[in-house]
Design brief:
Elements: H1 3-22, H2 25-42, H3 44-92
Helix pairs in contact: 1-2, 2-3
């Protein structure tokens, strides 16, 4: 990889992080996209494989988030029941 490509990727990723931290999300996505485009121009075969496997990555991520939401709601229900029982016990005294 040429030095200018490495510099372009580093600068665009750095700028994307800074813009994201400043709250300028559209500009951060644009700068991240520039870095990804330069990287894709260097490794087109790897990005083609990634593009083909992307739907499976999305399915796995969605399944993980669904599981996390179910666990969170179950923990919320258990905490609510526990606090209700504790309040009822206090009312008995």
């Amino acid at each position: 990889m040429n030095n200018w490509k490495q510099a372009a990727i580093a600068v665009s990723v750095g700028a994307a992080v800074i813009l994201l931290l400043k709250g300028k999300r559209p500009a951060a996505v644009l700068m991240g996209g520039v870095g990804m485009a330069v990287l894709a121009s260097e490794y087109p075969d790897r990005f083609e494989r990634f593009r083909e496997e992307f739907p499976s990555y999305i399915r796995q991520g969605t399944g993980f988030l669904d599981l996390a939401m179910r666990i969170g709601s179950k923990i919320g229900e258990l905490a609510e029941n526990r606090s209700r029982h504790a309040f009822e016990e206090l009312g008995e005294y």
